[in-house]
What we know:
By secondary structure, the protein is mainly alpha-helical.
Amino acid sequence: MEKLEVSNINQKKWAAWLSLIIGLSMFASKITAYVITGSTAIFSDAAESVVHVAATTMALFSIYLSAKPADESHLYGHGNIEYFSAGIEGLLIIIAALTIIYTSIVDLISGVTTESLGIGTSIIAVAGVVNLFLGLYLIKKGKETNSFTLVADGKHVLTDSYTSIGVVLGLVLVLITGLLILDPIIAIFVAINILYTGYKLIRESIGGLMNETDSKMLDSIAQLFTKIRKDYWIDIHHLRFRKSGEFVFADFHLILPYYFTIEQSHHEETYIRDSLREIIPGSGIRVHMDYCKPIYCKYCNYNTCNVRSEEKTIGFEWDAKKYIGDPIYKMTEK
């Protein structure tokens, strides 16, 4: 388990360093293209790359910080810095978009002048292709390592790529028609797209910091519990979980027969923890063990129990809604 965590951390660091190095290269290329052409559309793409470099630097810092183990001042570790990093990235994207819109409006008012658009367009086209592959790689690696930071950075890089492609198409249109006014107009459309990306990143980071329920993860946990449950698991309820970086912390109540020993109960917790880590590496659980009472007999599947007060007469669905809800006897009384 520890080897897997170290491997994930190293992969995240490598991906973040790669993103930063390529980001610096792309920024230098786009600034060169802007200096050559004076194009507002190319300036908008270069501004996006400035954000990429700044955001990736922040992402790299957050990955190193989130890798630190839990300590006395951060009992759940430092993983939430990744959400904060993604939020900062979203804010920087919005600032870049507003800067692009302002510059474009100024050019529309004062007049547009460009030159050597062919060379600049070629440079931006190459940058767009490079960022396309980089963005896909970062998202893939982020999902493999449960890194919200890498996924966010990958989405941003993909936006940068789409921006470059849009700029290239627009500049080709300028070259064909000779209408220079299209250059700042294209830049404004690019900025609007960038604004939306920034909004989504901030929205997702706030959701992470507020421990918003991840419905996909909830369904995964529910399906696992349903798959591995044993007949003497009388009920599971009050399931809660939260993500912190690549780690997931879950807790819930498990009702077992009252005559089970502490050792038997501990074995059940270990079994559930190991099963959960097969689908969510880096997860940890805390189980509150409840003991059964006669009122549970009518819901219980444990047919070999020798102390039943009555036979099972009421069935229920073992699903996500049940797991996060109240004990079964309270839910059926409503």
